[in-house]
Design goal:
Blueprint lengths: L1 H14 L7 H21 E6 L2 E6 L6 H9 L2 H22 L3 H13 L2 H17 L4 H11 L2 H13 L1 H11 L2 H19 L9 H17 L9 H17 L23 H24 L3 H12 L1 H21 L12 H5 L1 H28 L7 H21 L11 H13 L7
Antiparallel strand pairs: 1-2
């Protein structure tokens, strides 16, 4: 019944979509998150050996999977779409005379409200596990995997905060702003890999993701400039990627490989930026043709429905995986007894994915209300200094929790500082009031 009601609401909203809205942007937001979810679910290889649950990763088991990440690493698409959407929203705010203080308060509230139940559930889980003497390292590792989405959300929050700067860079420098950020990212990589100073690679969390976000700004203004042909972006990015992995010894995988010394995504490298440029070119190619078939009510309604709970879906999809793996282990290890990547293992994947989808739908039906409530609540303008300080505190806390998980030798022992940052940052962002 809830699914039918949600579909009916989405259908009504879909029928009243303004013609000026770029439906392809919304479709690609939903599609990119969908591919991320499927990729995560397939990449996590959980098996039962000698009665023990062993958590593995497909990139450690099959070299071909490193090449497959060129298709399934679509977080750059999400950030490109984010650049487009936030630019559109900021321009709309300007036309309405809405201040940055109010605009950022609305945007941040919608992004952070759905986090609270996720962290609460995992904190309670860690405490219960500790009381029942469950292996704390297993809880920590499981929670670390389940809370990975917080890592990307932390980066995204900073980019949303900086949207006016990205727009100002476009107005002042046009497409040169992207190339400036790309060159800065390249300088950081060269300095890190040739000067034996790996810590400076973390600077590229700023340069690479800002550059990817800037691609969305370029997309939004494409009709106002002489656009670079989409094929140049796609082929140029792909060629550069191939050069980097074959001649410069960058990792082939575009996601982190457990145990690998170098990752293209943590911290991000120019190889990931090249992937983003390739995907940007493909998006531009599809932008025009997609408009006609996205006017089909069924497809557009599905897009509207998924986007209405996109944050909840993204935040909870790995928790759904943790729940299914745990329950499967308890009842005998269905889907985890066959040798990984064997024919029997692959034959069990459709049923495995179906169970994961059901588990995620249940979680979304329970926790989507927090996201929906955040969209309805009125807020007061948020002073700029407070928005900056609160977002920095919150993002550092989210990144630490995503990196370490929850629950080590004692419940929340090493994560209290991270949780304190999250609570402090979230508290500073509480700005209920009239719009």
């Amino acid at each position: 019944m809830k699914i039918q009601t949600a579909w009916a609401k989405a259908s009504r909203k879909a029928k009243h979509t303004p013609e000026s809205r770029n439906r392809f942007v919304d479709f690609m937001r939903a599609t990119s998150i969908g591919l991320v979810i499927i990729g995560h679910w397939l990449a996590a290889v959980s098996i039962v050996e000698d009665g023990q649950l062993v958590l593995g990763h497909i990139t450690n088991l099959a070299d071909w999977s490193h090449w497959a990440t060129w298709l399934f690493q679509v977080m750059p698409v999400f950030f490109i779409v984010g650049g487009y959407a936030n630019t559109t929203s900021w321009q709309s705010a300007g036309r309405k005379g809405q201040s940055y203080e109010l605009w950022i308060a609305i945007r941040l509230q919608r992004l952070i409200k759905p986090i609270a139940p996720l962290l609460f559930i995992w904190c309670v889980t860690a405490i219960i596990a500790y009381q029942f003497d469950i292996n704390p390292q297993l809880i920590q590792e499981t929670s670390r995997i389940a809370l990975q989405p917080l890592w990307f959300l932390a980066v995204y929050l900073i980019l949303v905060l900086m949207t006016p700067i990205s727009c100002a860079l476009w107005r002042r420098y046009g497409i040169k702003a992207f190339w400036g950020l790309a060159c800065a990212a390249m300088v950081v990589d060269i300095a890190a890999f040739t000067g034996d100073t790996p810590l400076i690679r973390w600077i590229n969390y700023a340069f690479v993701w800002l550059a990817v976000f800037q691609l969305g700004v370029i997309w939004r203004h494409r009709d106002q400039s002489r656009p670079t042909p989409a094929i140049y972006w796609a082929m140029g990015g792909l060629t550069f990627m191939i050069i980097l992995v074959t001649l410069v010894s960058y990792p082939i995988s575009m996601i982190s490989v457990p145990g690998a010394e170098i990752s293209n995504s943590r911290p991000p490298t120019i190889a990931l930026l090249a992937l983003a440029a390739t995907q940007f070119g493909l998006l531009l190619m599809l932008d025009g043709p997609a408009h006609s078939w996205l006017h089909k009510l069924g497809l557009w309604t599905a897009t509207v429905l998924m986007n209405s709970t996109i944050m909840t879906i993204f935040l909870w999809h790995l928790t759904a995986l943790a729940i299914v793996v745990s329950l499967s282990f308890v009842i005998g290890g269905y889907g985890m007894n066959s040798p990984p990547l064997s024919s029997d293992w692959w034959l069990s994947r459709p049923a495995w994915l179906a169970v994961l989808v059901i588990a995620l739908l249940i979680l979304v039906s329970i926790f989507a209300r927090f996201e929906q409530k955040a969209k309805r609540e009125a807020v007061r303008p948020l002073p700029v200094w407070r928005a900056i300080v609160a977002t920095v505190l919150l993002c550092n806390g989210l990144a630490l929790v995503a990196l370490t998980g929850i629950g080590t030798e004692a419940p929340l022992n090493k994560q209290l500082f991270a949780l304190l940052l999250i609570l402090l940052g979230s508290g500073m962002l509480q700005v209920r009031g009239n719009r």
